[in-house]
Write a structure and sequence with these properties.
Strand order of the largest sheet: 1-2
Structural class: mainly alpha
Oligomer: single chain
Number of helices: 14
Order of helices and strands: HHHHHHEHHHHHEHHH
CATH topology: ABC transporter involved in vitamin B12 uptake, BtuC
Length: about 325
C-alpha cells in the first residue's frame, strides 16, 4: 500500500483491523505524557503481566476453537491450593509444581469432556465447574489463606516469582516462561495440523467435519492445554504472594476474556494469534497500573476495562458485518 495515497477509508480500515495496537500506542502516549512515574513502571507492568498471562494464553486456545471457559480463574486458584498442599506434605517445591500443573490438566480434561465429549454448552458447563473449583478453594483456605510452612514459603518465592536473570528487574523466570510459551504456541498454531484444525473448528465446525477433522477431539485438546496453562498461572500467583488466598480466582476469568478480546481474539472463534494475547495482557496491566498511579479506586479500573471491552466487541461486530 502506498502511504502517500492513503485515503480516509484506508485509514479507517487500518484502525479497525489493528485496533489493539492503536489502543496500546494510545495508552503508552497518555501514560508517558500525563501520568507521573508511568515510564518508570514499564518493568513492573511486564513482570506483573507475566503472572496473569498464562490464564489468557490458555483461554485464547479455547476461544480460537469457538468455545469459552469461565472457570479459568478458579482453575488457577485450585492449582495454587494443590501446590501448597503438596509442598507441605512432601517438603518439595518441585513436587508441588508438578502436582499443580497436573491438577490443571485434569480440570481442563473435565471441562473438555463436558463440552466436547458430552456436548454440554461451554457456557453452562464451565459455570458449573467454576463453582466446583471455587468450593474446593474455599474449603481448604477456609475464607483465608494457606501457605507453605517455615522456610518453604521463601523457597517457593525465591525459586519462582523472585528469580531473576542477568541481575535485571525485568528478565524474571515468569517473563522468560511466558515468552517461551508464546513462541512455542505461535509455531504450533501456524505450522502444525492441530493449529490449522483449531482455526477451522472455530471458524466453521461443520465444514471442518466435512473435511475430515475431528472437531470434538480438537476442542478437547484445547481445553486440556487451557487447564495446563491455568495450572502454571496458579503456581506463579501463589509464588508471588507466598500463599494460596481464597480470592485468588476471583475476576481472573474476566481479565483473561478482556485481554483476549481487546488483543484481537475473536469471540466467535477462528481468529487470533499469540501476539494478540500478549498485546491484550499488556493493555490490561497498563490500564490497572496507570489508574493505580492516579490513586483511582479498583471499581473505576473495572469500569474502564468494561467500557474498553465493549467498545472492542462493537468494533469487531461492525467489521465482521461489513466483511460479510
Amino acid at each position: 500500500m502506498n502511504f502517500k495515497k492513503l485515503s480516509a477509508r484506508d485509514i479507517k480500515r487500518m484502525l479497525f483491523n489493528y485496533n489493539s495496537i492503536v489502543i496500546l500506542l494510545l495508552l503508552l502516549a497518555i501514560g508517558s505524557f500525563f501520568i507521573g512515574r508511568f515510564t518508570r513502571n514499564y518493568t513492573t507492568i511486564l513482570t506483573e503481566a507475566s503472572l496473569y498471562a498464562f490464564i489468557a494464553i490458555g483461554l485464547s486456545l479455547v476461544m480460537i476453537s469457538g468455545h469459552i471457559d469461565l472457570s479459568v480463574g478458579f482453575q488457577a486458584a485450585t492449582s495454587a491450593v494443590v501446590l501448597i498442599l503438596v509442598i507441605n506434605s512432601t517438603g518439595s517445591v518441585v513436587f508441588g509444581v508438578i502436582a499443580a500443573v497436573t491438577s490443571g490438566l485434569i480440570m481442563g480434561a473435565i471441562n473438555g469432556a463436558a463440552v466436547a465429549g458430552i456436548g454440554i454448552s461451554p457456557l453452562i458447563a464451565t459455570i458449573a465447574t467454576n463453582y466446583i473449583y471455587m468450593g474446593f478453594v474455599y474449603f481448604f483456605t477456609r475464607d483465608g489463606s494457606i501457605y507453605p510452612e517455615g522456610a518453604l514459603r521463601d523457597s517457593l518465592r525465591n525459586n519462582i516469582s523472585r528469580l531473576r536473570f542477568f541481575n535485571t528487574s525485568v528478565i524474571t523466570l515468569t517473563v522468560v516462561l511466558v515468552a517461551v510459551a508464546l513462541i512455542v504456541l505461535a509455531v504450533v498454531l501456524k505450522r502444525t495440523n492441530f493449529g490449522s484444525n483449531l482455526y477451522i473448528t472455530g471458524d466453521n465446525a461443520e465444514a471442518g467435519k466435512l473435511a475430515g477433522i475431528n472437531t470434538r477431539r480438537t476442542t478437547f485438546y484445547a481445553y486440556i492445554l487451557c487447564g495446563c496453562c491455568c495450572g502454571v498461572a496458579g503456581v506463579f500467583l501463589a509464588s508471588s504472594q507466598g500463599a494460596a488466598i481464597y480470592t485468588l480466582g476471583e475476576g481472573r476469568d474476566v481479565f483473561a476474556i478482556s485481554a483476549c478480546v481487546i488483543g484481537g481474539i475473536r469471540m466467535a472463534g477462528g481468529k487470533g494469534t499469540m501476539l494478540n494475547v500478549l498485546i491484550g495482557v499488556i493493555i490490561m496491566r497498563m490500564i490497572s497500573t496507570g489508574m493505580n498511579l492516579l490513586f483511582i479506586t479498583s471499581a473505576w479500573v473495572s469500569f474502564v476495562s468494561g467500557v474498553l471491552l465493549l467498545s472492542v466487541l462493537l468494533i469487531d461486530k461492525f467489521t465482521s458485518a461489513r466483511k460479510a
